Amino acid sequence: MLRLKYILLFLVSLTSLNFVHAQQPKVSASLERDSIWLGDQIKMILVAEYPAGSRLTFPVLKDSLSNGVELISKSKIDSSKIGDGMMQMRQSYMITAFDSGPHPIGPFVFAMHSAIAKDSLRTNSLKIFVKVPNVDLKKGFTDIKKPYGAPITFKEIAPWILGIILISTIIFLILYAINRKRKNIPLFVMPVKPKLPPHVVALSELDKLKEEQLWQHDKVKDYYTRLTDIIRVYLEERYEVPAMEQTTHEILAEFKGDSSQIKGKLFTGLQKTLDTSDLVKFAKYTPLADENHFVLVQAYNLVEETKIEPVEVAKKPIPKVTGPEAEKENASANETEKQP
Amino acid sequence: MDQKVDIRELNERIQRESSFVDLISMEMNKVIVGQKHLVESLLIGLLSDGHILLEGVPGLAKTLAINTLAQTIDAKFARIQFTPDLLPADLLGTMIYSQKKEEFMVRKGPIFTNFVLADEINRAPAKVQSALLEAMQERQITIGDTTYKLDSLFLVMATQNPIEQEGTYRLPEAQVDRFMLKVVLNYPKKEEEKLIIQLNLMKHFPRANAVVTPADIIRAREVVKEVYMDEKIQKYIIDIVFSTREPAEHGLAKFKEMITYGASPRASISLAQASKAYAFIKRRGYVIPEDIRAVCHDVLRHRIGLSYEAEANNLTAEEIISEILNTVEVP
Prior knowledge:
The complex is a heterodimer.
Chain A: H1 2-22, E1 26-31, E2 35-37, E3 41-51, E4 55-57, E5 64-66, E6 69-74, E7 78-83, E8 86-97, E9 101-105, E10 109-113, E11 118-122, E12 126-131, H2 154-182, H3 198-212, H4 220-239, H5 248-254, H6 265-282, H7 289-306, H8 324-338
Chain B: H1 7-17, H2 19-31, H3 36-47, E1 52-55, H4 62-73, E2 77-81, H5 88-92, E3 93-98, E4 103-108, E5 115-119, H6 126-138, E6 140-143, E7 146-149, E8 155-160, H7 173-176, E9 181-184, H8 190-201, H9 214-226, H10 231-245, E10 259-261, H11 265-281, H12 289-300, E11 305-306, H13 308-312, H14 317-327
Parallel strand pairs in B: 1-8, 1-9, 2-5, 5-8
Antiparallel strand pairs in B: 3-4, 6-7, 10-11
Helix pairs in contact in B: 1-9, 2-4, 3-11, 9-11, 10-11, 11-12, 12-14
């Protein structure tokens, strides 16, 4: 039992010793390498590890660290937690030297303020050896070398490339827009659907109107409105007259006269259709069933009689050789074509 | 809103009631040569109870036309020459002190009549113009403490001279809007002018006879109100009026910078009333798009405000209205 007590005591004391060791503040100084060429630059790093509750002040370094060693720049202090309740602070310095030979640096003194006491911590000393290149003095003085051109990276030229592409695109678009405007073409043209001939559209619309049986379902006004719209759109497309923006009187005036393609019975039919439509649309006129049928027939007649059929070019064999034999061959070919 | 109208019966009534239109036209044609449009516009104003602004150079029979119209209707007529020193009291009337009766008495002005010809309305200052236009709108006049109703048949025809602008007071837009029609008169044709000379060289200048009474006109106005106007026609009116307000939305983007203000709702009302009167004159009991187009210029030309840009481009209200009529779809 007593033996077990001693073992436990030993373990507890060992743990507490380790804890005490972990809580010890520590400062250090280091160099990237221990020798440099004259005027070369080297990084010096100061690191401090200390308990989280206390405050540590970094040494304030002068421009000249020692005889011949100069401070060029310093980084910001970087602090981080490193575990066991300890913090780490790190600062790097860029230094250089212009005197040859060995140069001692440091030690550097950190001030630490804890809740209990105020203390100072010293880093290790550093030593740097500054080498001098071998110069042949017999050759005399030479010119100062020009700065070396650093290789250009893609990151450096990328904005320029993008800028050139962007400016080229803008210039192209401006020239494109000016060119289109000069030619009186809209800037963006949507692909246009192939337009159907006006008579095809009108006949299909009339078929639809017939199928819908509007007047049979007491929609006489809608029937006449649709019918006149079909006729007016057809006239507008076929004869290029603004029939949709014209009154009945104006439409009829457009086609009055012997030179018009709509004359005789066709004109009378159109007149009767439009007049009846006006009465139905604007005067509450109720036409008879015969009249409803009549106006539709007149509309069909108008479209059928005035439509333009697409002209088909007849394909005839072109005689290559002239002469009596060739003529005979042509005649026989024509006879074959005439046969049913 | 579907009105129950018997168009056939209405047509018959119109045939009966509108017989005087031909008589008036005939009597006026005895005195006035040409100016068919003026006579038609006077009848539209008369039948739709709307006032008319006449614009034309001197000597185009503006006064004679109105005088003759008054003669044919057997109505009272007064001509007031507007001058810069005219006062509202000269027009409306005032209270005068009678020493004999030892009291103030009302002396009614020349506006208490059936037909008023306000000659060169833009020569009078704004206060006189306002007094007249207020009387036109309210159809009543207050002198002292008493308000006097004007006759049921009360029509103001004002004239404006377009060539002389010096020393004139331009009618404000709000005041001009109160005129139902603005009729622009042009010179007569050669043949018409020849007839005018012959007529004036006659020993006795012809005089129109009274062929209709004010009561007939008032009865006819009631019939005009009954003239059927379909919803499609109402929509057509609205489309036209809105094209003056929002030209870009109606396919007239080129007028966006040309029009400073469009026609008011009063224009829509006037267009509807005038087209009904026109249909009545044409012996129809219903309005068709032709009627709207026939009166559109007269109703709208003074209700569209043109920008400086329009004036710089020599663009007139006439051209804008014509373009609107050529763009808005007819029902």
